[in-house]
Model the fold of this input.
Amino acid sequence: MSADEEAALRRAAIGSALFMVAGPGVVTGLVPWLLTGWESRRPVPGGAIAQVAGVVLIGAGASVITHSFARFAKEGLGTPAPAAPPTELVVGGLYRHVRNPMYLALDCLIVGQALLLGRAGVLAYAAAVQAATAAFVKVYEEPTLAKTFGDQYERYRRNVPGWWPRLRPWNG
Done:
C-alpha cells in the first residue's frame, strides 16, 4: 500500500469513527437515554427472556454497526456520512447479504434497549427511526448511489435486497 493510500485509509477510518459517535451514537445512545434515563420498568414485561433478547439484539446491533463503519473506511475509502462519502461502492462483508445492514443494526440496538428496559416508548422510537431511515434511503441514498456508481450500483441493487437479508452472500 502506498503512502497516499495509507493516508486515505487513515482519514477514512478517523472520519468513520467520528461519524459513528455523532450519528449512531446519538440515535442509539443519547436519544434512548433522554427517553429513559436508562431506568427500566419493574417488572420488565416479558421478564428475563425479554431482557436476554434485548442484550442479544444490542450486542448484534453494535457489532454490525462497527463492521459497517469499518467496511466504509477500508473498502470504500470514505465514511457513511453524506459529507464524506466512499469513493468505492461498498459491497463486501455483510453488504453481500443486505444493502442496509447499518440501518437494520440501528433498529436492533433500539429494540434491544426497549426489551431490556421494558419501555414501549423506546419501541415506538425504533419504529420512527426505521421509517426515517427508509425514507432517507429512498429519497436520497439510492438516487445518489445510482448517480455516483451507475451500472455497478444497479447490478448490486438487483441482486442484494435492501431490507431482508439474503441467506447466501452475493458474489458479484
Notes: The chain has one domain: 3-159. The chain is about 70% helix and 0% strand. The CA atoms of residues 33 and 39 lie 9 Å apart.
